[in-house]
Design a protein that fits this description.
Elements: E1 16-18, E2 30-36, H1 40-55, E3 58-60, E4 69-74, H2 79-98, E5 103-108, H3 109-114, H4 117-121, E6 127-129, H5 137-145, E7 150-152, E8 175-179, E9 181-182, H6 193-197, E10 201-202, H7 205-217, E11 222-226, E12 234-236, E13 243-245, H8 246-254, E14 261-265, H9 274-282, E15 289-291, H10 299-304, H11 311-324, E16 329-336, H12 343-356, E17 360-365, H13 373-377, H14 384-408, E18 413-421, E19 428-432, E20 438-442, E21 453-461, E22 465-471
Parallel strand pairs: 2-3, 2-4, 4-5, 5-6, 6-7, 8-11, 11-14, 15-16, 16-17, 20-22
Antiparallel strand pairs: 1-2, 9-10, 12-13, 18-19, 18-21, 19-20, 21-22
The structure holds 5'-deoxyadenosine (5AD) and iron/sulfur cluster (SF4).
Length: 479
């Protein structure tokens, strides 16, 4: 699967251990190790957690053996995500045996979903902290150090961590994620997020723009604005009563610098406005790429999922995007085998994939989550083999669509932001075009470096990568 900066799961990053950049001279009394699972939002939260802990004098380490505190920032979206975390916890049991003072904390969505039940189920866990309670981590750690199990899973209607500057960790120094809102008010029948992350709330635009400006000044050249449903971003300044919607926010961030690329994720098909599309068109540095999860192509299933749009509405949005920005890439999340899904529903999904012509998709077999609308109302009645077979067909089709889309780009020239060396060779760069496609090309000039924009002509492609060459040398756009 391609990695993508959005609320969907980037499989290559699951379980990634974070180490913050620290100035080596600082001495810390205690060290924490944090491993993250789930969506980009969760990885972004780990940067906030690291910032809170560093502010309290804790140092980060990537070596689990050296840690005084181990944190798992967890995901509940599918059963498999929770199983992975439970397996990881059993591995920590061994370390705890040799280091009895070690504290183990479960943070994030699984903490929120299971609350203190986690302490009973996973005996070695000392702290359970939900996504809105990270400010209380220092006092919870103290509590746990004194031998009491510490739990805070209170959800908040206001918390956005707006004033906390995330510590950028494991970063390429070029792309950063900026959280613009938290929680979700949509009640998609399959989804646990409204229960684990609470009500939707937007962060004030001033602190968002400030964060993006500091990132730019530090050398970053790409920000991805993150929210479960960015189109419903809405902030009213309490002093002026002036309201800012997502299109306005996008514009403000785009104006930080023409050299700062702006991406965002995730959009909801029911909420994405023409105003947002026109703002994207107007600003060259707002990337022409929209993650617009369809979930299913069948009207009957969409209704059961409570997505509140039809396939006709969805295709109408796609047409509008293509009409306003013919070069805009679109990606999707798709679920195979939702409750009562019949063969015809599945065929409708394949059909909407073809009609939209997705550049990428994140594809999943339906996994029932306790407490969700679907778990309470419907039977998870599609047999596993059927789910798997349908998922395979969806993946096959997406592979075909991705390759077709890449083939169409051969011979075209794209502006590419260099991110670093290509995986295969130090003589080649890897970067992305506005549409988020990965491009690999030979280095041609010592002036080029990560963060530089170059023009690249696509010459060949695979399903996941465009191979090209730099053109218009040496007209580099200076970073
Ligand atoms: N089962 C399978 N996939 C799910 N997703 C969310 N909940 C479930 C579930 N219970 C998928 C959706 C969503 C993405 C983040 O994960 O496609 O858009
Ligand atoms: Fe992200 Fe939580 Fe949803 Fe997992 S369950 S995808 S961590 S919001």
């Amino acid at each position: 699967m391609l990695d993508l900066a959005n609320k969907t799961i980037d499989e290559t990053r699951q379980g990634e251990a974070y180490q913050a950049e620290t100035n080596g001279s600082q001495q810390y009394s205690k060290y924490f190790f944090i491993e993250s699972y789930g969506c980009q939002m969760n990885f972004s939260d780990s940067e906030i957690i690291a910032s809170i802990l560093q502010g309290e004098g804790f140092g980060s380490t990537r070596n689990v053996e050296e840690a005084d505190l181990i944190f798992l920032n967890t995901c509940s979206i599918r059963e498999k995500a929770e199983q992975t975390v439970r397996k990881r916890l059993t591995e920590f049991k061994k370390i705890k045996k040799t280091n009895p003072g070690l504290l183990i904390g479960v943070l994030g969505c699984m903490a929120e979903r299971l609350k203190s039940k986690l302490l009973e189920e996973e005996k070695l866990v000392d702290l359970v902290v939900g996504p809105d309670a990270y400010r209380t981590l220092p006092s919870l750690i103290e509590e746990a150090e004194s031998g009491t199990k510490a739990v805070n899973v209170l959800l908040s209607r206001e918390e956005t961590y707006a004033d906390i500057s995330p510590v950028r960790i494991n970063t390429n120094g070029i792309s950063a994620f900026v959280s613009i809102m938290r929680g979700c008010n949509n009640m998609c029948a399959f989804c646990v997020v409204p229960f684990t992350r609470g009500r939707e709330r937007s962060r004030d635009n001033i602190s968002i723009v400030e964060e993006c400006t500091s990132l730019f000044n530090e050398g970053y050249r790409e920000v991805t604005l993150l929210g479960q449903n960015v189109d419903s971003y809405y902030w009213v300044d309490p002093q002026t009563n002036h309201a800012v919607d997502f299109a306005m926010l996008l514009e403000q961030v785009a104006q930080v610098s023409p050299l700062l690329r702006v991406r965002f994720s995730t959009s909801h098909p029911k909420d994405i406005t023409d105003k947002v599309l026109h703002t994207m068109k107007k600003h060259h540095n707002i990337c022409k790429y929209i993650h617009l999860p369809v979930q299913s192509g069948s009207n009957r299933i969409l209704q059961l999922m409570n997505r509140t749009y039809t396939r006709e509405w969805y295709l109408g949005r796609v047409n509008k995007i293509k009409e306003i920005m013919p070069d805009c890439a679109i990606s999707s999340d798709i679920i195979a085998g939702f409750c009562t899904e019949e063969e015809q529903d599945h065929l409708d999904t394949l059909d909407i994939m073809r009609k939209t012509g997705y550049e990428y998709s994140y594809m999943f077999a339906y996994s029932e989550r306790p407490g969700t609308l679907a778990a309470r109302r419907y039977k998870d009645d599609v047999p596993d083999e059927t789910k798997k077979r349908r998922l395979d067909e969806i993946v096959q089709l997406q592979n075909h669509l991705s390759l077709e889309s890449n083939k169409k780009d051969i011979g075209k020239v794209f502006e590419v932001l260099i991110e670093g060396d290509s995986k295969r060779s130090k003589t080649q760069w890897m970067g992305r075009n506005s549409q988020y496609k990965v491009m690999v090309f030979d280095k041609t000039d010592p002036k080029q470096q990560p963060g530089t924009y170059v023009h690249v002509m696509a010459l060949e492609c695979t399903q996941g990568t465009m191979i090209g060459k730099i053109v218009e040398q040496p007209q580099l756009i200076e970073a």
